Amino acid sequence: MSTKRVNIEPLRYQRLPQDTKQEQQCDDRNSSEFFNIFIPPSRSAVPELVANIMSSTPIPGITEEYFLTETDVHDLVSAYIPDDIVASDDLSTWMSKDGSWDFTWDDLSDIQEYRSLVKSSMDTKCTVGFVLKSNTNEPDTTKKKLVNLQIYKMKSKLLCEAVFVSFNTSANDLIADRDVTTLPYTFDDYSGNTQDLITKITKSARQIRLVVIDHSGLTTNPDNIRLFISLNKSIQELVEDIGHKVEVYSRYDLLKNIKILNKF
What we know:
Blueprint: H1 3-8, H2 20-35, H3 45-53, H4 70-78, H5 88-98, H6 105-120, E1 125-133, H7 140-156, E2 162-167, H8 194-203, E3 207-213, H9 222-231, E4 235-241, E5 246-250, H10 251-256, H11 258-261
Parallel strand pairs: 1-2, 1-3, 3-4
Antiparallel strand pairs: 4-5
């Protein structure tokens, strides 16, 4: 019977008592169902969220540059998107295709392949990093901060077991002559200077994968590289990190391929 008909003829029709408790339970159930409804974010909304969380350009005095793995970024974003709506692989793909970050999916895949290679070859190859900081006009505090960031990057992104540093050194100096009379540095989580690196290479029971940052991270003299590689026979690879991807050069390339040597 409609409510309108009851209101027109109240003497003929009577309202039956309602079970208010049952009605309340029904309302509560409907209310609960309403609040559990979740609309998945669109594909465009996720990169926009990441861009708002992580600025692509450092803000002086507020933010610092750190390398985050795909898992780190996914964990960060997941705090804002519940129920594992976005998988780590999907997030990496969307970010690389969005255009807001300075890499492509191929570049990202390149770094992932490198990290997989390092992990799978740890029994036979020791991955060590080398950080070179030239003698520039920057304050020492600034230069030391940059070196510490590079050490962190070497270990977190490039998976170096040990990182060695040459501070206030010319990139054109002979590698073997560096830090002969240098006092110990005070950097975070580093393993020594150039002479300590040479000792590590000489005494290592495993082959060496040497990692540097950009073309001038070891030397700017191609003949210097060739000499250093030829004298240290355990060095099998030189890995160059250029930000959004890595380049891996074999021992043969560094000794025989003039085109590759001329990159440095």
